[in-house]
Amino acid sequence: MRLPFHVASHLDASLRAAAAKLGLAERGFQPEVRVADPAHGDFQANGALAFAKREKQNPRALAQQVVDQLGDLAGDFDLTLAGPGFINFRLRPAALLGWLQEYDTEERLQSGAASARAGQTWIVDYSAPNTAKQMHVGHLRSAVIGEAICRLLAFSGARVIRDNHIGDWGTQFGKLIWAYKQAALSGAAALQSALATAPLEEFERLYKLGNHAADADPAVLAAAQQELVKLQRGDAENLAVWQHINDVSLAAFQQIYDQLGIKFDVTLGESFYNDKVDRIYRELTDCGLAEESKGALVVFHPEHPRFQTQPFIVRKSDGASNYASTDLATILYRYEHFKVDGAAYVIDSRQSDHLEQLFLTAEKWFAKTNRKLPHVEHVGFGTVLGENHKPLKTRDGENIRLKALLDEARERAFALVSAKSPEAPEAERRAIADVVGVASVQYADLSQNRSSDYVFAWDKMISLEGNTAAYLLYAVTRVGSIFRKAATAGSGAESGSKPDSPSVALAKEGAPPPISGEDSARWAALATAPESAAEINLARKLVKFADAVQLATNTLRPHYLCTYLYELAGEFSTFYAADKVIVDDPAVRARRLLLCHRTRLVLTAGLHLLGLRTLERM
């Protein structure tokens, strides 16, 4: 029997079975399997130490009892005891070969991972820009982090619903509609021309005019409020303007999403829940959770250290709904309509207080109404900073448009590609730069711990050195060049064992030949177990792809996968420098080609999980 995709889970199950035989399971024994320090093994189980301490037993003796029950693992692992009861597991070369033979495509990798969350339904709430405004750099993190989380959850077996909870309702539309009507009165032809040329930019300009006018003149503010009331009451003219605003906005947003590889399953903005908030008010009141306070409907959380005197306002004193109202309606709709097991809210960390109050209110409300609240989690993230360590903005203090940011990334990548490979046709250099530029922006964000702010630095971001998208994309193409050599050279024709420099790799002509399933199967069939230290270390790193995926998914932190991919690329470089691939011995050649193929496979699968496109040639 070959090893399953996730070796640590396999060990956990075996340890639990051993504990059950010894009568330890019912007393709370937990295996606590984790990736080990390479000096001690591949995996380590620390559960015997904590259990023995609680039970006042000798931890090493207890660990030995557990090990004695693990005979079925002996064929795949070397088992050793260390210290006061740590159980170390080191994969044997034959077991490593079995794993590499088993997982030969992205589909096979995914099928191995899918048991982790099979049967679960998750909704991921991300991006969520406001309509009538252009997306800017502040929208970048939610979009790329959210998409990566969707892919990780789906890869792990969950049914995933991508929801773009756009801001398409509220007071700003009163001001915008007022400004739109004023512009139509003063010059309808000019307005229509501007809307035909650059519609979202024109609506953004009109909103700024309306907002400024409302701030300066109470009469304008009152008029704008009346326009909002008319909209909320279903006035046909105002609804038509509002719908046009949303249509234009969504079309512009999709142009950005297409570049980032994002396609939402549903776009249910605040307006969708407008007719669902009355039920929220009624239920919260009927179950005794909400009360009137100064004309508003609020929920108090006196037990919370920060919210004792900070009510959660679910209906404003003028009777209007707010974010709290629609967010509670959203939770209920997702529970009833989508029947979700979990909901991830990929939202700026500055909204943490609102979301904490929201989730606390929902928890109490569901308990009082005999419902089970799905798992809800705020996937918070920090701010994108400029190199001055202040929020990234243009020189005149405006937010940088996301479209302009991606355009600049492509141009910088084109300059890099052109400098390294000037003889390539421009169309090819543009195509490569399109992938490298956008991927560089995505990866620079994803490779950071999302909880932290990070500095947006072009030179570091679009570089072939360090933990960057360009470096990893190059690593994929470099492995591909080995297959080109294998296809065109005779036995032993590979002249050197050191990897090409990035500049040399960029200048090479021709893409690697496609690798057929027959090629992969032939290498897997001919390969012997890894023997050299470099082969074994690379194989071990490949097996731990499953742990990186699990850690990134369970914590909803894609940077763990980024770190793994960077380390894998480094491990491959060490292997390639140490061991010649195209050699005369068929078995050695096959196993090294197999290691190359699986490295490219895992790098590619990992980059796809992060939402990045990959290249055959750079």
Compute the separation of the termini in Å: 40 Å
Please state roughly what percent of the residues sit in beta strands, choosing from under 5%, 5-15%, 15-25%, 25-35%, 35-45% or over 45%. 5-15%
Mean pLDDT: 92
Shape: flat
The DSSP helix count reads 23
Report the strand count.
13
The largest β sheet comes out as:
4 strands, antiparallel
CATH class of the domain at 459-609: Mainly Alpha
Q: What is the helix content?
A: 55-70%
Structural class: alpha/beta
Q: Any idea what the CATH superfamily of the domain at 459-609 is called? A: Isoleucyl-tRNA Synthetase, Domain 1
CATH architecture of the domain at 459-609: Orthogonal Bundle
What is the radius of gyration computed over CA atoms, rounded to a whole number of angstroms?
A: 29 Å
Strand arrangement, largest sheet? Answer: 1-2-4-3
The quaternary structure here is single chain
Which consecutive residue ranges, at least 5 long each, have pLDDT under 50? 490-512
- Can you tell me the CATH topology of the domain at 459-609? Isoleucyl-tRNA Synthetase, Domain 1
List keywords for this structure.
Gyrase A, domain 2, 618 residues, 13 strands, 23 helices, single chain, Isoleucyl-tRNA Synthetase, Domain 1
Task: Kindly describe this structure.
The protein is of the alpha/beta class and 618 residues long. Among the domains are: 85 residues, 2-Layer Sandwich (Gyrase A, domain 2), CATH 3.30.1360.70; 92 residues, no CATH class; 151 residues, Isoleucyl-tRNA Synthetase, Domain 1 (Orthogonal Bundle), CATH 1.10.730.10. The protein is built from 23 helices and 13 strands. The strands form four sheets. The chain has a four-stranded antiparallel β-sheet with strand order 1-2-4-3. Strands 6-5-10-11 form a four-stranded parallel β-sheet, sandwiched between helices. α9 packs across α10 and α22 packs antiparallel against α23. About 4% of the residues have low confidence.
